[in-house]
Amino acid sequence: MEKFRTGYVSIIGRPNVGKSTLLNYFLEQKLSIVSRKPQTTRWNLLGIKTTSESQIIFIDTPGLQKEPKIALNQHMNKEVSNTLNYIDIILFVVEASKWNELDENVIELLKKASDAKIFLVLNKVDKVSNKNDLLTFISKLSKEVDFDEVIPISAIKGTGVDDLELAILKKLPLGPALFPEDQITDRSERFFAAEFVREKLMTRLSDELPYNLSITIEEFKEKNNVLHIHACIWVERKGQKSIVIGKEGSVLKSVGKEARKDLEEMFDKKVNLKTWVKVKKKWTDSEQALKQFGYYD
Ligand SMILES: Nc1nc2c(ncn2[C@@H]2O[C@H](COP(=O)(O)OP(=O)(O)OP(=O)(O)O)[C@@H](O)[C@H]2O)c(=O)[nH]1
Ligand SMILES: [Mg+2]
Question: What is each CA distance from 72 to 37, 45, 283, in whole angstroms?
Answer without folding.
Answer: 17, 17, 8
